[in-house]
Specification:
It is built from three helices and 17 strands. The chain is mainly beta. It has a seven-stranded mixed beta barrel with strand order 3-5-6-7-13-14-16. The longest helix is centred in the middle third of the chain and has 11 residues. About 40% of the residues are buried.
Length: about 230
Amino acid sequence: MSHVIQGERVTMPVRIRDAAVASAMFAVPAAPAQAVIDYSGLRVATPLPGRRRAVCSLAFIRYADGDLGPYHEFAVAFLVRPPGGGPVGAFIHWLPVNQEFTLDAGRTIWGFPKEIADIPMDLTSRIKRCAVRLGGRTALELAVRPGLPVPSGAGTPKVDAYSCLDGVTRRTPWTMSPSGVRFRPGGASLTLGDHPVADQLRGLGLHRARALSSSTVAHLTMEFADAAEVRP
């Protein structure tokens, strides 16, 4: 199957041949997290002891080579329980990008909540840094400190990515193959600005939270299949 985006044909699955990533995971109160994603009809997963804490992931990605061209992206995601059971998935709540083609492709093909932003990032220095700015307002700044190398494992991770745009919730099969992975407990510093998304994250306590863990990936290849509508 294929899609026409800005006059160009995009054939599925979409392949990313080279990307670099830095990310951090935070424990947040489950009830406020659920309120943030209620519009999707999905339920946050509560995998931590006590079952009153959800998991929020923040990540910044530099796409160097892929079917949608080079671009920068920042993601705010929550672990969610899939409708009907099964392994937890990742609900993509906010996904600013800095290029128009991937904006149109992401919204049209997968219903990803992409919007244009200024996303300066540094993934080459020892400490990885990123900021997200929209309309002259800083939403957030995230810094990830280096961790220890993680041995390459067998297999290719597969995750279902969920999105909700214009009232439609979708599931997208997402396959990843990482190398050059580093991991550590903690290791992230988050500064929130004055954008509405920053206010949402502040409402989850992220302005004072310590990261559960952080990681970097020097080289990542990915495939995104077509999205399917789901009924939560």
